Amino acid sequence: MDIEKYGSGPCPVGRALLRIGDAWSLLILRDAGYGATRFEQFRASLGIAPNILTRRLTALVAEKLLTKHRYSTHPPRDEYVLTEKGREVLPILAAIGAWGRRYHGEGGTSFLVNEETGGRIEPIVVDAATGKPLSDLRTRLVRPAATNHAAGPQSP
C-alpha cells in the first residue's frame, strides 16, 4: 500500500483505514467500548499474542484513540481508556456489526441492546441534514480543487 498516497491524499477512507483499519485495532476499540481497559482483558478476549497487542495498543495511543494511565507501580500496570476520538469510532463499529449480522450472521451473532429500554438496536448510517439512510440516497464524490483528477477514482 502506498502509505503517502492514502495517508495524506484526499480520500478520508484511506486516511482512516491507515490509522484504524486492521482487524486487531478495530476489535480492541470494540472491546474498549464494552469496558475493557487492561492488557490482560484485551488479550483474554481476543486471544491475541502479547507482542501484537502491545504494538496495536501503542499505535492506538499514538493516534489518540486511547489514553494510557498507570494504575499500579509495583508491578507497573497500565489501563487503556477510549478518548472522544476513540468513542466516535463505536457507532461505525456498530454499523459494521449490523452489516455483518445481515450478510454473515449464519448460526447467530451478538447484537446491541439499549440498556434503558432493553430493546434491540438496529444501527443505520444517516445523513445528518435529512435524516435519510445513506443507503437510500444517490451520492457523488466531490474532490478538493487541488486534487489530481488523473489519479483515478478515490473512495469517499
Automatic annotation (TrEMBL):
What would be one Pfam family of this protein?
Answer: HxlR
Upper classification of the organism: Bacteria, Pseudomonadati, Pseudomonadota, Alphaproteobacteria, Sphingomonadales
Q: Where is the HTH hxlR-type domain?
A: 11-108
Organism name: Sphingomonas sanxanigenens DSM 19645 = NX02
| UniProt keyword annotations, A-Z | DNA-binding, Transcription, Transcription regulation
Q: Which residues form a coiled coil?
A: none
Q: Which domain of life is it from?
A: Bacteria
Named from the GO MF annotations, one term is: DNA binding
- Matches recorded under InterPro entries: HTH_HxlR, WH-like_DNA-bd_sf, WH_DNA-bd_sf
What is the designated name of this protein? HTH hxlR-type domain-containing protein
